[in-house]
Design brief:
globular; TIM Barrel; about 200 residues; alpha/beta; about 20% strand; thiamine-phosphate diphosphorylase activity; Thiamine-phosphate synthase; about 40% helix; 8-stranded parallel barrel; magnesium
């Protein structure tokens, strides 16, 4: 599974999920996560359907955050779980797609590894995008997680064009970003800059 630059959509920065997704898809990002905490289920379904159509057009992977039901309803490629969501083994029984999980420690990563397809590790750096975010694990914490599991690790949390190379040097297979693109004056340009750096490290 090739991950690379992993963009998580957000409606908190004056643009819609669809606008941001299309901007990054245009420049070559092929891993998109739909994350939304403030819409009704019906609104989320409508947006997720639009994102599914967009990602199909660009032959890209669509992951839905938290909601297995929504992922099934729109035929998403995958679902991303937190530590407090449905148990990984239960999700694997009912969802035949990519399952990712957020982790904050080596222990959490190792416990989840047998049930999931990729591990998200972070926050690497301090982030304001996620409310109640845990303390940063830093580059050393990220390295420990990468070296402790065989599944692909995606780094997340406070990653931008100034620190992304340090993150990529830890051996991760993907880098997830939100505000570095969504909060940019030119999301398309920012995505392209980050993608070019990621490709230098992760393209064969």
């Amino acid at each position: 599974m090739k991950i690379g630059l992993y963009f998580i959509t957000s409606s908190e920065f004056s643009r819609t999920h669809e606008e941001l997704a299309e901007a990054v898809l245009r420049v070559g990002v092929r891993f998109i996560q739909f994350r939304e905490k403030n819409m009704s289920a019906r609104q989320m379904f409508s947006v997720a359907k639009n994102l599914r159509k967009l990602t199909w057009e660009y032959s890209a992977t669509l992951i839905v955050n938290d909601r297995v039901d929504l992922a099934l309803a729109v035929e998403a490629d995958g679902v991303h779980l937190g530590q407090d969501d449905l148990p990984f083994e239960v999700v694997k029984d009912i969802f035949d797609g990519i399952v990712g999980v957020s982790t904050h420690s080596v222990d959490e990563a190792k416990k989840a590894e047998r049930y999931i397809d990729y591990i998200s590790a972070g926050p690497v750096f301090r982030t304001t995008t996620k409310k109640n975010a845990k303390e940063p694990i830093g580059l050393e914490g990220l390295r420990r997680i990468v070296s402790s599991v065989k599944k692909p690790v995606v780094a997340i949390g406070g990653i931008n064009k100034f620190n992304i190379e340090d993150v990529l040097k830890t051996g991760v297979k993907g880098v997830a970003v939100i505000s570095a693109i969504a909060n940019s004056q030119n999301p398309e340009k920012s995505a392209k800059e980050l993608l070019e750096i990621v490709k230098r490290y992760l393209d064969d």
